[in-house]
Design a protein that fits this description.
The chain is an alpha/beta fold. The chain folds into two domains: 90 residues, Periplasmic binding protein-like II (D-Maltodextrin-Binding Protein, domain 2), CATH 3.40.190; 77 residues. It is built from six helices and five strands, in the order βββαβαβαααα. Helix 4 packs across helix 5. One of its GO terms (cellular component) is plasma membrane. It is a multi-pass membrane protein.
């Protein structure tokens, strides 16, 4: 079977993709990515073509009556011999038309506003996330209370809290009870403070 010498091509005019141009002497030519591809195919297969645009200028949508619009609909109904464009290959479309091997791929992505720089005054909080800072604050509040409870002496909570807070920066904790449970709690806090102060930002 000989290849047809004249074809009707359904496409959608798009700048830099399918541009329809007319030379000074009236001859039609196409440019853009798909336009150049169509020109090469027509030269290789030696056929002439006429461009026909779908009325609604879309690639193809199926309505509630299973009728297709756009390029897909024109090819399905025989109003065009071939459709060319940035047409996505879907299972529904493959049921009514045949697709060539894809010659381009498009990645789908999204974008958001680029975040600005954080104020310099907040640099002290950079080493940890907000949830970690909350846990650290809870540990700083609860541990002195446990220490005071284990000592079972009348030492003000604020004084114990200051001792534990300053221990983070290397100051020693005054231990007046050598019981195992108190020593274990202090050792835990010293180890905890060591990890915090040696955390690389």
């Amino acid at each position: 079977m000989d290849f047809p010498t004249n074809l009707i091509i359904s496409t959608i005019p798009q700048k830099h993709i399918m541009d329809k141009n007319v030379e000074s002497f009236g001859e039609l030519y196409t440019s853009g990515v798909d336009g150049c591809l169509l020109k090469i195919i027509s030269e290789v297969l030696k056929f002439q073509y006429a461009l026909k645009f779908p009325p609604n200028l879309n690639y193809g949508k199926k309505d509630e009556n299973d009728n297709w619009s756009g390029i897909i609909g024109m090819v399905q109904r025989g109003e065009a011999d071939l459709g060319i464009g940035q047409i996505a290959v879907t299972r529904e479309r493959m049921e009514v038309v045949d697709f060539s091997v894809p010659y381009t791929n498009q990645d789908v992505t999204f974008l958001i506003k680029k975040p600005g720089l954080l104020p310099v005054s907040w640099t002290i909080f950079y080493p940890f996330e907000g949830s970690i800072w909350i846990l650290l604050l809870c540990a700083l509040i609860i541990t002195p209370a446990l220490y005071r409870l284990l000592l079972n002496v009348q030492v003000s909570y604020s004084r114990v809290l200051i001792h534990f807070y300053t221990s983070i920066f290397g100051k020693s904790i005054l231990v007046k009870d050598n019981s195992l449970k108190v020593r274990f709690l202090v050792a835990f806090w010293v180890f905890f403070a060591l990890i915090i102060t040696n955390r690389s930002p």
